[in-house]
Amino acid sequence: MTEQPASSMPDRVLKGIGRALEGALFNSRWLMAPFYFGLAVSLAVLFLKFARMLWEFILHAPGAKSTDTILDVLSLIDLTLVGNLILIVVFSGYENFVSRIDATGQPNWPVWITKIDFAGLKQKLLASIVAISAIHVLEAFLNIDAAFDATRMTWLVAVHLVFVISALLLALSDRLATERNSE
């Protein structure tokens, strides 16, 4: 039996500890799975809110003014966009940070479920936020006769412009990064 040099034993122990630590860190990604499940539950709650708003819309639409009808439809669109946003975060976040989703044998699944990367996720999120913000600005504008508040309208437009500029800057930076990486 040959003796191991004294320095190789601590090196092996340190490498083993390093591998164990790396494994624990890598497996910690599964701690995100309950977050995505919670978002799926929030989607169900959002559906209940949507169903209630849709029912109220159907009941009140015949006697409502056209502006009120448009505002109600915009509220339904707003909830739909938030639902889409939740789905994008759940599927792409799970795919990018927890585990791959196996879409084989699932012909009805949307193509984007397993194709969206982190840059695409950021762009889709910001595009949805811009759309939701635009709906809120439009709702305030359509409701301007009932309750005009110049300060509120200014803030809504300013926040919307910040979202629009942020989305444009993100798209530009992603494009520049893609061009730089392809050179």
Architecture overview:
This protein is mostly helical. It folds into 2 domains: 18-106; 117-183. It is 75% helix and 0% strand. It has 5 helices and no strands. It has helices spanning 8-27, 33-60, 66-97, 118-142, 150-182. Helix 2 packs antiparallel against helix 3 (66-97). The longest helix is centred in the last third of the chain and has 33 residues, at 150-182. The N and C termini lie far apart (56 Å). The mean pLDDT is 83.
Itemize the secondary structure elements and their pairings.
Blueprint lengths: L7 H20 L5 H28 L5 H32 L20 H25 L7 H33 L1
What portion of residues is helical?
over 70%
* Overall SS class: mainly alpha
Order of helices and strands: HHHHH
Biggest sheet overview: none
Number of domains: 2
Distance between the termini: 56 Å
In terms of DSSP E residues, the strand content is under 5%
Radius of gyration: 25 Å
Query: What is the approximate shape?
Result: elongated
> Mean pLDDT, nearest integer?
83
Task: List the uncertain runs.
Answer: none
Strand segment count:
0
Number of helices: 5
Question: What's the short version?
Answer:
With 183 residues, this protein is mainly α. It has helices at residues 8-27, 33-60, 66-97, 118-142, 150-182.
Which descriptors would you attach to this protein?
mainly alpha; 2 domains
